[in-house]
Amino acid sequence: MSDKEERAAITAAMSRLLAGTPLRSSGRLDIVTLAIEAGLKRNKLTHKHKDLKDLFYAQVKAQTASPTAKSSSATRSPP
Questions:
Q1: DSSP state of 33
Q2: DSSP-based three-state secondary structure for 72
Q3: Which of 22, 32, 39, 66 has its CA 20 to 30 A from that of 79?
Q4: Which residues lie below 8 Å from residue 57, measured CB to CB, with a gap of 6+?
């Protein structure tokens, strides 16, 4: 598999995991699951495509932080 194909597989897997629609994995938002979902070995993410690993973690952080912050402030009743 070429670098271009690996990157395409990783980005497609990222999209599926972040959308909650995994095809080949448990759907957990971690690097091991991303590698499984992309059909690659984990070291491709930790050594070769570090930028995509970092992007995935940033997107996971943004996705999990934003709704929580909004929902907890929206559900609080005024004092």
A1: H
A2: helix
A3: 66
A4: 31
pTM of the model: 0.79
Q: pLDDT over 90 for what percent of the chain?
A: 77
Given a contact cutoff of 8 angstroms between Cβ atoms, the answer to whether 35 and 12 are in contact is no
Indicate if the alpha-carbon torsion angle 24, 30, 34, 35 is positive or negative: negative
* Alpha-carbon torsion (8, 13, 19, 21), positive or negative: positive
Distance in angstroms (rounded) separating the CA atoms of residues 13 and 9: 6
Pair of tokens at residue 7: 């990157």
Distance CA 67, CA 18 (A): 13
